[in-house]
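REQUEST FORM: STRUCTURE PREDICTION
Request ID: SP-0412
Submitted by: Lab K.M.
Chain count: 1
Length (residues): 89
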Amino acid sequence: MRKAMPTITESTTELHQRMQREKDLKKRQRLHALYLAASGQARHRRTIATLLGVHRHSVAAWLQAYAEGGLAQALRYRVSKPPVHRRVT
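STATUS: Completed
RESULT:
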């Protein structure tokens, strides 16, 4: 059973313009995913993932973040830090 896509409240024009201006590649990719969903070019997470060349779980996480907190939440991402290796003595 497929999970319903969230309702995108921003207009396609607004998303497209913001996507064009965005310098951060990760944020641009997330805006592109939202644009594809809002414009009707992709109706499923798997289609968006295929078009963007990412895993469908990534797209699902982006759309879940959008559904929970809007555009600001969807564009937020964590920068992972490399693990700290400690000597066992």
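NOTES: The CA atoms of residues 12 and 55 lie 23 Å apart.
Reviewed by: T.R.
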